[in-house]
RNA sequence: GCUCCGGUCGUCUAGCGGUUCAGGACAUCGCCCUCUCACGGCGGAGAUCGAGGGUUCGAAUCCCUUCCGGAGUACCA
């Protein structure tokens, strides 16, 4: 039987990394096995539904390259894929009727106040809280008829069998058992007629032929209810896969104080979608061998549920940075420019940096201002594309995120880049430097503009000055040309800069040598 | 409180009764490469496998107990 899995978000907020991981697992499993990846919108909670949120989900998933074979946006054999629409079609009403008639569900007329009082009572007596029957589980038909006639509102609850053991076979954790007397009767249909997750998701999973119910481990305690539902209907049970969650450094659920949780913020910070996926896949899963950085195809090929870990994993930003660097280095020279340009021009990336301000990790140092980051990035976007194409590859192996290209490339675009004063103090005061600069100034016009010729030229200076090392030549020139002490290879950078740009900078440097 | 789940270097993990006084990766430290910074290469430090008992010739791996962490305990998902 072919694998069918579904990503079923409830559009109530931003798409964070935990949800992306959920979507990724299903995407990977479906693609690995040649199965079907389904998108289903679970919008049964009308009080929390948020249309912007749905837009956020679609945009994020699209960026991440996680696609679907069936869903509200593309249709499919089990349309509609939106639970609010399915409810209107009467799908849940039809199936709850089956349960009611078989005696696996019942109407309960308790008011919210009565339920609150019951819970209070249970807490005081230190017993399980929850609805284990109340007066309605075993009410007579005439009591129910009377309440209905009186116009009382009701919910429909699932009748969990008593005095038995409920077993959930979980693919990752194995057999999990519950004493059915510890499982309360969940609401299946709310007063407003909408189904709850417990009901809608299971009914849809069955109808849509879902083979693997993959979800976060926070669902484990509800799993016995779901198993009972399948048994009440007499349906074949899918495979339950309760995946470990991603937690913060303190072992608690990931939240804002652990850093960015919104997936789009990782996009804005300059992480490649595949790098994020590669990294997230590695939390709680391993291919079984020692591979870590993998291409998309390798990841799909390697993904297997047997490699899933039962324990929660922490989000280690350093490892994400490492893996992002690897994937940036893997971008071909022909694609690099468009990858960076697309990043710089992206609407959300710009919005993110425009509003970004963060205290510097070093006390006393200036805060990191997003608009500065953006300004540097914009220099790339507005420069001549051939020039940019010659610059970017030099930076490729020195960069961690796409945002770093802005800082790394800045000196190429400024006629007079800002100078690192400490570097000036260190190098420009040396005796040979003034002569070095004027000689270079004279030579750059007559020597070919190429890596080889500049290499030969500066090495000739070294010989002429009888210097033991190349450093005293290279370092001052680098500072004169770039304002910095670190960066791409000097000869390469000179060849890209060309004689005209170098001339202006060397003249300025000469003035600084006093 | 009750019910479940989890527990191998700081972090992500390999490990499925012996070939492991535990392998890889990130981070960290050192060396090499070298015009700098990176990249890359090599090496070091870092886990008595949460703890205590068993079972066994032999346990991180099986059993029991215990501790710690987490989740659920909604007419939210």
Task: Please give a structural write-up.
This protein is mainly alpha-helical. The chain contains 22 helices and 13 strands. The chain has a three-stranded antiparallel beta sheet. α8 links the parallel β8 (212-216) and β9. α1 (17-33) crosses α11 (296-302), α9 (263-269) crosses α14 (347-354) and α10 packs across α12 (317-329). It is elongated and about 110 Å long. The termini are far apart. The relative contact order is 0.08. The model has no long low-confidence stretch (mean pLDDT 94). It binds one RNA strand of 77 nucleotides through α5, β6, α7, β11 and α12.
What is this structure, in a nutshell?
This protein is mainly α and 514 residues long.
Q: Quick check: average pLDDT?
A: 94
Strand fraction band? 5-15%
State the total count of DSSP E strands.
Answer: 13
Structural class: mainly alpha
**Molecular shape:** elongated
The total count of helices amounts to 22
Helix content: 40-55%
Taking the sheet with the most strands, its summary is:
3 strands, antiparallel
User: Can you list the strand order of the major beta sheet?
Assistant: 3-4-7
Low-confidence runs:
none
- Amino-to-carboxy terminus distance: 81 Å
- Please tell me how large the radius of gyration is: 32 Å
């Amino acid at each position: 039987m072919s694998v069918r899995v579904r990503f079923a978000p409830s559009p109530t907020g931003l798409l964070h990394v935990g949800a992306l991981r959920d979507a990724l697992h299903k995407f990977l499993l479906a693609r690995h096995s040649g199965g079907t990846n389904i998108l289903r919108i679970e919008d049964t909670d009308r009080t929390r539904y948020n249309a912007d949120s749905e837009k956020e989900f679609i945009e994020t998933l699209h960026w991440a390259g996680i696609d679907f074979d069936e869903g509200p946006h593309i249709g499919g054999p089990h349309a509609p894929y939106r639970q609010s629409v399915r409810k209107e079609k009467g799908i849940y009403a039809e199936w709850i009727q089956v349960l009611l008639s078989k005696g696996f569900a019942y109407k309960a007329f308790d008011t919210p106040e009565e339920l609150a009082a019951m819970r209070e009572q249970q807490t005081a007596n230190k017993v399980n809280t929850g609805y284990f029957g109340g007066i309605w589980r075993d009410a007579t038909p005439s009591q129910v008829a009377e309440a209905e006639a009186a116009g009382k509102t009701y919910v429909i609850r699932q009748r969990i069998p008593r005095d038995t053991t409920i077993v959930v076979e979980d693919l990752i954790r194995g057999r999990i058992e519950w004493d059915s007397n510890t499982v309360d009767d969940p609401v299946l249909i709310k007063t407003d007629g909408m189904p709850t997750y417990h009901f809608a998701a299971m009914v849809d999973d069955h109808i849509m032929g879902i083979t693997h119910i993959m979800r976060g481990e926070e669902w484990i305690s509800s799993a016995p209810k779901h198993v009972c539902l399948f048994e009440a209907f007499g349906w074949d049970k899918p495979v339950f896969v309760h995946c470990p969650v991603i937690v913060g450094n303190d072992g608690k659920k990931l939240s804002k104080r652990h850093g960015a949780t919104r997936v789009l913020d990782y996009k804005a910070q300059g992480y490649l979608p595949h790098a994020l996926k590669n990294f997230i896949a590695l939390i709680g899963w391993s291919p079984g061998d020692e591979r870590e950085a993998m291409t998309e195809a390798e990841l799909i090929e390697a993904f297997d549920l047997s490699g899933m870990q039962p324990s929660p994993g922490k989000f280690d930003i350093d490892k994400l940075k490492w893996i992002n660097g690897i994937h940036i280095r893997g971008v071909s020279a022909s694609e690099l420019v468009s990858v960076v340009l697309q990043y710089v021009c992206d609407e959300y990336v710009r919005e993110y940096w425009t509003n970004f301000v963060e205290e510097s990790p070093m006390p006393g140092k200036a805060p990191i201002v997003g608009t500065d980051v953006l300004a540097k990035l914009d220099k790339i976007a507005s420069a001549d594309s051939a020039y940019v194409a010659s610059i970017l590859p030099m930076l490729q192996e020195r960069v961690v995120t796409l945002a770093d290209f802005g800082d790394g490339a800045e000196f190429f675009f400024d006629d007079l880049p800002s100078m690192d004063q400490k570097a000036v103090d260190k190098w420009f005061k040396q005796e040979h430097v003034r002569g070095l600069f004027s000689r270079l100034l004279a030579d750059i016009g007559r020597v070919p503009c190429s890596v080889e010729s500049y290499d030969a030229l500066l090495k000739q200076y070294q010989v002429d000055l009888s210097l033991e090392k190349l450093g005293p030549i290279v370092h001052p020139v680098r500072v004169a040309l770039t304002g910095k002490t670190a960066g791409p290879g000097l000869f390469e950078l000179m060849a890209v800069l060309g004689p005209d740009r170098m001339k202006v900078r060397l003249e300025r440097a000469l003035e600084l040598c006093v």
